[in-house]
Amino acid sequence: MLQGFKDFISRGNAIDLAVGVIIGAAFGAVVTALVDNVLNPLVGGIFGQPDLDRIWVITMRAAEGEVPATEILVGTVLTALINFLLVAVALYFAVVVPMNKLAERRAKGEEPAPEAPAEDIALLTEIRDLLAKNKA
């Protein structure tokens, strides 16, 4: 049982996954800082507020008694959607575009397919295969 666990852990997939999760969490902090400190102030400069939480508030009348009025903040959904789009844009331009460029460079640098063997090598290979076939 322990050997199975040891085999599972020592496979590259589990370790790669763990490294990916840790790097993803660390990169999430970078994206959050970018959104909170650069993009949201930019949105605040354009729209006058750093978020749209109170842009559309629906107040429901309080029921009789001491129950306070209820507010429905539709703007929080807009803020969440805008934050999601900002994070997606930041990830796209900070990770996806550079990775695609890197993949293109690697694809250009690939070694060409090996050339066909010389005629004498091909003939020797054919003879070897025939001898092996007759032996069996």
Q: Order of strands across the widest beta sheet?
A: 1-2
Q: Hey, roughly how much beta strand do the residues contain?
A: 5-15%
Q: Using only CA atoms, what is the Rg?
A: 31 Å
Global shape: elongated
Number of helices: 4
Order of helices and strands: HHEEHH
Distance N terminus to C terminus?
43 Å
Counted beta strands? 2
- The portion of residues assigned to helices is over 70%
Q: What's the rounded overall pLDDT mean?
A: 80
- What kind of sheet is the major sheet? 2 strands, antiparallel
> Structural class, judged by helices and strands?
mainly alpha
* Unreliable residue runs: none
Quick recap:
By secondary structure, the protein is mainly α. The chain has four helices and two strands, in the order ααββαα.
What can you tell me about this protein's structure?
The protein has 136 residues and is mostly helical. The protein is built from four helices and two strands. Helix 2 crosses helix 3. The longest helix is centred in the N-terminal third of the chain and has 36 residues, at 12-47.
Summarize the topology.
Layout: H1 2-10, H2 12-47, E1 57-60, E2 70-73, H3 74-108, H4 119-135
Helix pairs in contact: 2-3
Q: What keywords describe this structure?
A:
2 strands; mainly alpha; 136 residues; 4 helices
